């Protein structure tokens, strides 16, 4: 294949270039057999530096596709989807679902505001209340008739209370906390009177909308934090109510990746001390249930092995609803302040895995310095069992350590715990928030060996792109990129230093790929010619503008 991305089928090209040869044979098969649609794959290089070039071949056309890192897309379970998206250019089903979720989120957000006059933190609570009420077998939407003696809100409240009893939400104070968050729907006048435009109460309208259009999505998307996605949309449409408080909800592909990086096992006990809407716990539960072998093991995972802490009552209620709707009635969520909770109480959980997206930008001065992302990381590591695995997602600035206190925290971290890896992520991961994130992976209660070579990844090219009116979506390259990352992380594959660097570290270093990376690739003849041409152009420009003195040899 030429540098201009053209396939040559001349004899010398077929024998000297892998892709050309593969295309030649694929073309022959397409023209002389019953197989008319063929993927030709040319692979050149070695384990560390290689190119995988797929080409789609028929007897009528040749389509050069994007280069890949692995052959993941050509597995039996992936190849049909790869063909549909990369060759036929069909929109992936996940993207269609996401578009629908966003459309429904926007519509429901507008309706909650227009018909219910609800505040931003009340909107997701109404959604949660109705979702729980709809689980009660004795509740029916037909009961919501706008009676002013027995109000619709009271009926929804009683139904969700009954369902919390049915799934045995314990202890009692936990149930009371949840019910307190929902109590406003019982008597809020505008929610409980018949709206002349709707011909029914807003609560009945919301219940019909949620039952018909949202409940199905939540139950069918086991891995997706659909309620969390709705919450994120509410925050976004409200003009960023949550951003000032550092609320940045983690995308599901990142929560799943972090579960993979800590190699979650069905025997693990997981702690997320900043659980938000429950995204990490949902991904962890899904991953552990996939690996569990018996029903008893699955039941134990749901009941005993997933723990979350959330300080905000509304987020705590949403997270609890989220877990209940996925069949985890107990959910082990605590509504408390992680930083100020007795650490010995947290250690009693005996968590073997920590997952966290801490609040961002809370350490604004000396008085709030203890709320920095590094402080949260250290406290989480201190809370885990010896040799527990921990993955956190934080702004890249956290790994740099700008302030004196940050540098002290980094030093303390290495004294008691081990940094395993830092992964620089796609700048658009938190699309619309303006945070450049990274994932850091640690081993708890194992002092960092000064001779240890930590892995630093540049994973900015992760196969996710921003689509207008949708946000961040996966391309068909996402699977391939993720597999490459995990293979290199777990030492199953090698990679050039442009992707992964291993280095010993000091507390004063910037713990990012960009700090340790140097280009070890031998320049090509084309690179050399281009550099020379650039230099000569620069010299000519300077001399023509009377700056030839720049090129005088020293001492002349």
Automatic annotation (TrEMBL):
Gene3D superfamilies: Vaccinia Virus protein VP39. It catalyses: a 2'-deoxyadenosine in DNA + S-adenosyl-L-methionine = an N(6)-methyl-2'-deoxyadenosine in DNA + S-adenosyl-L-homocysteine + H(+). It comes from the Bacteria. GO terms for molecular function: DNA binding; N-methyltransferase activity; site-specific DNA-methyltransferase (adenine-specific) activity. It is an enzyme of class 2 (transferase). It holds the Pfam family N6_Mtase. This is site-specific DNA-methyltransferase (adenine-specific). It comes from Caldalkalibacillus thermarum (strain TA2.A1).
